[in-house]
Structure formats: C-alpha cells, structure tokens
Amino acid sequence: MNIILASQSPRRKELLNQMGLKGFKVTASDADETISEPLHPSHMVEELALRKAKAVRAGSDEDDIIIAADTVVSLEGSVLGKPSDEGDAFTMLSALSGNRHYVYTGVAVIQGDRVLTGHEVTTVTFRDLEPEEIANYIATGEPMDKAGAYGIQGLGALFISGISGDYFNVMGLPIYRLGRMLNELGLDLLALAAE
Fold first, then answer.
1. Angle between helices 86-96 and 131-139 (to 10 degrees)
2. Phi/psi at 57 (nearest 5 deg)?
3. Contacts of residue 82, Cβ cutoff 8 Å, sequence gap at least 6
C-alpha cells in the first residue's frame, strides 16, 4: 500500500510530513478543474478534490490511499482562486483589505471502493492594506500560486488581524479533517509516528 498525494503543492507535502506520514508519493493530478455551474464554495472544493483524487487513482494500485485537496477563498459571495497575473493579485488583495473572508478546503481520500470527501471552512480577517504594501507583497512572488493571492504561512501573515477555525485549512490542507478521514480507513497516525 502506498499513500499518494495528488498535488504538487509544497505546503501540502509539508503538512503530510507534519502529520507523521513518511515515504508518501506525490503525483500531480491532470483533472479538469472547470466548474460549469454555480456551486457553493464547500461543494466546489469537494468536487474538485474528488476529481483530482480520481484522476490519480486511475494509475495506482487498488490498496493505495489517494489524498487530494482543493482550496478557494470566498469574499461576499465571490470565489477567489489563484491569481492569473499580478494585476489580478492586486485586485484580490485590495478586495480582501479590511474585510473578513472564508477559506474553504475540500479533501478527498480514496482507497479501493472507499471514497471519503469533506471540507473545512476558516474565517480570516485582514487589516486595512495600503496599495504600496500590496504592490510590495506581490513583488515577492509569494501570492501568485495561492488561492486569494496570499499565504498565511508566509509574508501574507502580516495582513491577518484575526482567524477563526483551522489554521492549516488556510494553508491548503485541514489536518484535523484529513486525520479523521484516514482514521476511518484504519490508519492510526499516532501509532505510525510511534513506530
């Protein structure tokens, strides 16, 4: 049995290591991430995580455990994914300035015929941002591969005045939720870490 992370995200790899999962494989998913109908962010991230997991499962063994996730930011009913360019990042960060938003991460875990999906939502509040500091942040390159154009685990933390919910969810992988899902499949992470 292999554990396969269906993601190239360095943050998700780091979080799996933090959970005590060693020796897992990483396989990028080529799943279609187009959503043609309007979905609530919680349904959207679960659907996209499931697509990613199924795409990777196609090339794996029956007893392998596939883990996939998808994260979006929701602000006043609008969904913010990864910025398409620096101008898009500036627009996103300007909209988040001084506001509360919600970070949704969907998780899918597949092993054989067992398919588990779920999501977490975390509330994040930004302080008021000056245009110059937004521009300086974008110049670091950090926001370009992150939903909502910021990373809570990096320089983006300088913008956050409050958080309610799972911190790791904002990083892109809700450790609590994933741990419970893996436990349902019979993986005791603490017992594995103690070996």
1. 140
2. -60, -30
3. 144, 145, 146, 147, 149
The residue-averaged pLDDT of 50-56 equals 93
pLDDT of 176 reads 94
Determine which one of 70, 128, 145, 166 is catalytic.
70
pLDDT tens figures, 93-115: 999 999 999 999 999 999 999 99
Please enumerate in sequence order all residues whose Cβ is within 8 A of that of 15, keeping only pairs 6 or more positions apart, or say none. 168, 171, 172, 173, 175
Tokens 């092993």 locate to 111
Residue 70 among the catalytic residues: yes
Q: Using CA atoms, how far apart are residues 60 and 75, in angstroms rounded to an integer?
A: 37
More confident residue, 189 or 5: 5
**CA gap 109, 40 in Å, rounded:** 21
Quick one: DSSP state of residue 113?
T
